[in-house]
Amino acid sequence: MVFAFVAIFVLISFFALHKHEVLSASAIKNTLATLSMLVFNVTTAPIVYLAAKYCREIYASLHLPHVATTFWQGIPWLLVAIIGVATKDFADYCSHRAMHTKWIWPIHAVHHSDTHVNGLTLYRIHLLEILFMQVTYIVLLSWLGIPELLIATAYVIGSLHSAYVHFELDVDHGPLNWLVASPRFHRWHHADTPAAFGKNLANHMPLLDMMFGTYYNPGPCREKMGALSDDIPDHNGFKLLLLPFVLWQERIASAISKTYARLAQTRTQS
């Protein structure tokens, strides 16, 4: 359903809005890289399912306090849905903010590698990020005990909105900017400019960014997309699969080098 929604918009974009951009060599290479990531993730979906199942079992074995599912019976489903969406977005904000830190960034850098952000960018995500998000949901949302049907419904609605905010549109929501994320809001998140790094981390409710000091929306976004300034490749699917491990290797090597340098300096001074 979500993929069909994205595909329809991409076709509209092709024929009516950005035909010359959609057909550029760089855009085509980026799209093929995104689709290769999608195929890989679909193929390895059983791994995510089994890993998530194992994590849920571990979490359940801890017997932590939680809200009973029966608690939600009799409460209007719309209110439960709103609570579900709000708490999920808070969980997403927390995990998203964590993924913009030094050691977790490597798994999220794949998503930011797209230099032609559009609806399909939703699917440019590394397997390790999917696993990280699943663990986040288990830890931050399992205790709520919200019925699975409502969780599934919220997930579908959230996925549709996530696809929408990636569209190549300069759409702003005016007085509702604090409540519902817009494509302009999210394009700033993908902008390859230092002023926007680590900003606009909420998937659906910019209010969270306003509350925690990560809101940034100065107007239409004319900046380049992607992370080429950070030497992140944009259209090689194989390199994107290996990217987290390459970046971790670089960071570990750098940390070791700095440690040896400090030790050498300490010995010299003594």
Characterise this structure.
- The chain is an all-alpha fold and about 270 residues long.
- It has a domain at about 65-245.
- It has eleven helices and no strands.
- It has helices at about 1-15, 20, 25-45, 45-60, 75-100, 105-110, 125-140, 150-165, 185-190, 205-210, 235-270.
- The mean pLDDT is about 90.
Helix and strand topology:
Blueprint: H1 2-17, H2 19-22, H3 25-43, H4 45-61, H5 77-98, H6 105-112, H7 127-141, H8 148-165, H9 183-190, H10 207-212, H11 237-269
Helix pairs in contact: 3-11, 4-7, 5-7, 5-8, 6-11
Keywords:
270 residues; mainly alpha; 0% strand
Please report the total strand number as a whole number. 0
Mean pLDDT: 89
Proportion of residues in helical segments: 55-70%
Strand content: under 5%
Broad structural category:
mainly alpha
Number of helices: 11
- As residue ranges, the low-confidence spans are none
What is the radius of gyration? 20 Å
Distance between the termini: 67 Å
Largest beta-sheet details = none
Order of helices and strands: HHHHHHHHHHH
Question: What is the gist of this entry?
Answer:
The protein has 270 residues and is mostly helical.
